[in-house]
Model the fold of this input.
Amino acid sequence: MLRTLADMMNQDKRFAFGFTVMLILVALAFLSLFSPHDPRQWNVVPRDRPPSTQHLLGTTSTGQDVSWQATWAIRNTLLMSLIAMLSSRVLAIVIGLLAGYSGGTLDRILMTLTDSFVILPLLPILILVASILKQSLSVVNLGILLGAFGWAWDARLIRSQVLSLREREFTYTAILSGMSTPRIIFREYLPFIFPLITATAMNNMLWAIGMEVTLAVLGLVSLEVATLGTMIHWAVNSQSILLGMWWWILTPVVICIFIFIALYMLSLSINEILDPRLRVQRMTK
Amino acid sequence: MDVLRVQDLKCFYVVESQGQQREVKAVNGVSLNVKKNQVLGIAGESGCGKTTFLKSLLGLVRPPLRCLGGKVEYIGNGKATDIMSLSKHQHKELMWEHISYVPQGSLSVLNPVRRIGDTFESFIGAHMEPSTTKHQYEELVCSHLEALGLPEDTLRAYPHQLSGGMRQRVTIALATILKPHLILADEPSTALDVVVQRGVIQLLKDIQEEQQNTIILVTHDMAIHANICDRIAIMYAGKIIEEAGVEEIFSNPRHPYTQYLIGSLPRIGDKAHRISAPGSPPSLSDLPQGCSFHPRCPEATDNCRKEEPMLTGIGGDHRVACLSLTRGDFNADQAQVALDQ
Amino acid sequence: MPTRHKLLSINDVTKVFTIGGGFQRARLKAVEKASFALEEGKPEIFTLAGESGCGKTTLAKMILGLLEPTDGEVLHSGRSVQDLVKGDQRDDFNKKVQAVFQNPFETFNPLRPVDTYLLETARNYVTGGSNGASKNAVAEALDLVGISYSLVEDRYPHEFSGGQLQRISIARALITAPSLIIADEPVSMVDASLKMSVCNLFKVLKEEHQVNVIYITHDLATAYYVSDRIAIMFRGNIVELGPVNTVLVEPKHPYTRVLKDSVPEPDPSNKWSGRIKLSGFEERDFMRKGCKFAGRCPEVKAICEEEDPPMVAIGSGMVKCHLYAR
Done:
């Protein structure tokens, strides 16, 4: 495991970059455990201070330490996107595999459902739902909400992949070897679908973080929870740019940019590494 | 009169993976002369390098394929042209008017969103005098199609509206409309049904008789070769191992591989037991030492494991690359003694 | 007295595919009223031959229970195959009927070692889970096709040649000691120099192991070489059926004659003579009311356009043609 990781770091610069950045971010998220302040409390430090040795990234107008606040924000945002990603993966995989392998009426019903989710204008609906649920939109709830909306397109991709796999001769070989349907799906198909799942997982996390930031900036999530989105919200609402408090607004924005680039790089390189065609080619060598 | 001369051509796929260079020896020292008005068949099984050989004859040598030696000369208009050293522009001029190509899959040549007629127009437009009128051009195309027995409305059809056999005939019409001197065909009938296959081969033969050009036909199907070719070259592991007139190859095959190939052909009306050659063809990236066929050859000697046989004449215009035939009673031990002294 | 059932009997089997959806539906009869039977205890190699799109692969899938016939029935030892595979007897059925597919490189999942399929087959049908016994069963089957187990263990499909893979695929089918193997174009993707080794294997299976083989091919020359009886299919219909010696040597149906004449002879002194007529737009044949071959038949009569010809018994064979109808 460690060896393959080292190999991948050496071979692919994109992977090395993405992985390192994510590792640093996760480490920062863990630092939140040692935070001396409760992220919900205001006025725990002097207000409006620029970066200094005491407050590495300065302090806010609400009297919070930006650097400690950022560790909480990274933790919560990553957690939220992870929950969104996992729940939408479960939905996408189950629906995609089921529709693709069973075909017929079940396929038609599931795909009608999927298509309705694909064509729904997500942002207005999320805004609507969020404005109703606003106060109860904690990290976990927001993750589940985004997960419930983020699976449709990927379920479609998985289904089409299964449809083509089902017609390949080795499926018949598997049937004639007496393998059961779940076994065929998990043993025969999953290796082909796995790269799709991981690549879409990264993209889904990206999308979830983007959505969270959007909703938070609009003030539609529970604002006392520190996330990258709510940090930007408070910074914008307190006129941090006008007041020249660049450290307050730039910190969450720069972190967001790094997360986006890192996840994108990871998805690109993992997709390439796991691509079945390339895998076969590598095995041939 | 030769139309094409190939001298010791070596074209390898050079692949780099994880810092290691790997060579796939697809065309490994092939020499061949092709005479005018001749149909030359190149036979061999999948992965013996016959398609790569055809590609390099066309000068389509692009990475990862690399030409590492030898030359291909096309002789036309009273001068010899080295195909490998042509500029892009010169190559374009030579192609289609002098040398044309019939690929295996017709779909890759015909643009799916254009009518057949438009494909013809843009295809020959580049090779016509600028003064040619649309009327003259249409007359040329129609008369050519008519000669090949294709109905005129094919020109208005899209490729998907035609059957596979029709598409392949359109591709052949496209490749022959400029009356090239040399036609290279790569498995032109392989994906087709037997009845259609016969029609396509018949068409190629008709064109050759009418236009008096030369055809190099690559296919793995020996029965097709028997029906259309004048000469046959057998390829094995990137090399030509036997070359002779078609009757000679079928009645008097000399290389053990050719003997297996001819001997294992089933015929309707003959139930006699047929046997295949033992073993499997070698990988082109990992060829055995000496003669490439020796691991499968029942007559292999120690010498075959060490020495690479050369393609050598054995009377008439029959050439074979097999040590047991070309050396006669030659004794390897004696040779070693002679070398030592 | 219990009636003796035929090993396999195909009674008036029809398969209709609906193409497209919504407003543009078209019905395509891929197989139309096909009938033939294989006797129990008299192993033979039966060829289904025809051009692409003639319905031979569809018929094979129905025999394997992978497709359900629209009409008619496929019986295995007197019992409907559809009932067998839909009920709890799928395993029993697959133990007796196995298949070999066309493309050896597609038969096995490129991401899994080939021996997993062999072990899986042995475990599911023969040994019921024991690892050692499964390995023995696999080794025995591989031995029949002339490959040693050590050569196959933990190897991926790309490490083999087409001929080897096809033999491994046959070995997999043999593990359950089936009475019937359906082989769909088993040699069309195998290298020329190895084709006959696969063909000979089928002959050995029939003669020494009493295995029936349904050999599906477009290649009449190998069909003649391996099989005992042959059925020629054209546009979903079996147009001629009988022993290979009569059907391929003295074909009766005009289509069989055209087909046979189009097979190139590997003999330069016997080249094609005469010319053949090709149809331009072949899709029309499926929609014909009468004989599907009427559009291309050199001996077409007025009745051929109107009426579907009957199946006429001549000697040991059957021909579906108005020429022979009384």
In short: Residues 42-68+85-227 of chain C form a domain with the Rossmann fold fold (CATH 3.40.50.300). Chain C has two domains: 42-68+85-227, 240-263+279-326.
